[in-house]
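Quick one: Pyruvate carboxylase from Diaporthe helianthi, structure tokens please.
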Amino acid sequence: MTCHGSTYEIARRKVLRSLIEFRVRGVKTNIPFLATLMTHEAFIAGSCYTTFVDDTPALFDLMGSQNRAQKLLAYLGDLTVNGSSIKGQVGEPKFKGEIIIPELLDDAGHKIDVTKPSTEGWRKIILEQGPKAFAKAVREYKGTLLMDTTWRDAHQSLLATRVRTVDLCNIAKETSHALANLYSLECWGGATFDVAMRFLYEDPWDRLRKMRKLIPNIPFQMLLRGANGVAYSSLPDNAIDHFVDQAKKNGVDIFRVFDALNDIEQLEVGIKAVHKAGGVVEGTVCYSGDMLNPKKKYNLEYYLDLVDKLVALDIHVLGVKDMAGVLKPHAAKLLIGAIRKKYPDLPIHVHTHDSAGTGVASMVACAEYGADAVDACSDSMSGMTSQPSINALIASLEGTNLDPGLNVHHVRALDTYWSQLRLLYSPFEAHLTGPDPEVYEHEIPGGQLTNMMFQAQQLGLGSQWLETKKAYEQANDLLGDIVKVTPTSKVVGDLAQFMVSNKLSEEDVKARAKELDFPGSVLEFLEGLMGQPFGGFPEPLRTDALRGRRKLDKRPGLFLEPVDFTKVKRDLAKKYGAGITECDVASYVMYPKVFEDYKEFTQKFGDLSVLPTKYFLTKPEIGEEFHVELEKGKVLILKLLAIGPLTEHTGQREVFYEMNGEVRQVTVDDKKASVENVSRPKADPTDSSQVGAPMAGVLVELRVHEGTEVKKGDPLAVLSAMKMEMVISAPHNGKVSSLQVREGDSVDGTDLVCKIVKG
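--- reply ---
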């Protein structure tokens, strides 16, 4: 390559540009070295000398090419041959065309310019005057404000949290204008955090920053699990401080802080972290049971006592979180009316799910009896396990002094987008057909019910869904009628599915607690790792199930060592290279394994957030052309040309794509070609020496081998099934024989794992 220019600098720049655009595939080249040389300050100044390269080791600190296009092709090739790898996807999207972005019209019928986001909204008060001024303004507002949950809880409840960043950003500017008077937009935290990395291969922090740039005017709200952050178990206090600080810096304004057991000590950790970061503290009471039923343990006195404790922690707003949709309209009047009477200046924000079909009635009742804000979502994403319809709430309050102050035509226009998008994500639908008033009995949270249905299918319990719901009630009773929201709802759900898988009644669990291998989440709860439940732990179940394991009777965070963030960042940089940010550190602290899997996936396939959702979920047709914008001004024009035959001895196929007019080929392992049908023997329940798998799953860890001497209760293996882990333990003393499995094997319930032969 030879370059020239009228000056040295022009020639240098030509060389650098040529190197950047140069592509040589299949062999290593010195292009990275030359590019580094061209950008060194001494070379730019023209002051190099004969031994400059020898004397400048920094020239060999090379930055590799991003190679984004080839990585993207590797993903598309795998998708083309093996189909989607996104867990929970069933079939292909029903929507095949291009999604139409709606236009917003003003009162005169003229098109509103949405090329720039709106500057009007409640966030201005937070930024200019602070959280207390915001709370005061909310309380003084005459109407009822709304929070839109479409961007988080609605798609978590209906579409398994699978909506991608690109599809949120595509409607962001229109949302900025149409919903400028929202109390907040719930768009981050909760399950969206780990699902973004775990299943969508996206950076949740990148999502937050992109949304914030496009919607600068509406307050962003997130769900914070108290001392858990966004994880499923307690973390060191400084981990929560660090996480909340990063969330505030990257765009979150309002933090709905809750604890899965309404444990005030756990709540205090999250509330203090938000105060330190300068965010709006929405200290939250989780509503459970039926306040109108005198037989239930959670009565009005219980809730008012909890509100007193939250007010003492200087919260800005009180949240009432009805995660299962069991807050009946009359109970709503009593609860909100009592809180308003006791605390006339405290803003109240109420959340519900429409599982029973009474969501709109309950939210109207809350508004009438003193709530300042209630939750709703776009019509086509509403109802059932999601939130009530936003237009139904607007219509119910329209013409009264509680009018939400939103343009109904603009709200409807946005819904035309979400109605199309829901069809695009149809492979993740739970296919609920109507409300479920049985929720007043089983109390399964809206965000969990659809996930449990999917889990039941994966565990082979799909035909026993009614039994699973009944087992959920029984599991809740066994655990002491606890508040059920992530992560405690998972505890109840894991126990319920464990009971159905192993055909255990409530009495069976009590009688056999000393010998059953309970799911890991159940043992963590009974240990006290999730906090202290109101009324205490169930005995003797707790003691029997733990079998000598520790029991914590204080806040779990008190027993955890602080996180060394400097070390974590250094270790991550060593493993994944320069560029590790504080947000990456926060992600790793919350979900170490998930973060590592995400990084390894993106190192292999690159940033998939640029890929249109249609081609993220399903392969294109032969000859179909589509565009992918890697960055502004850099667009790939792709077309699938052909899929080669299977190469028998390698189990691979060649896939041919056209990229910007050039034919590219990728080699893909055909996973269907290497599938082996393994038939495993079943454990004989009448033979005490045979140890069977308690349910379907993957053996993620094997702790014994043939000949290992074990004692009763010793762990043999760890089984993982849909985020649920359980240890398979030895039923008695003896020696391991007839080991039937290896790490990584998939097993069905009752498959023989091994035999324990008595000495």
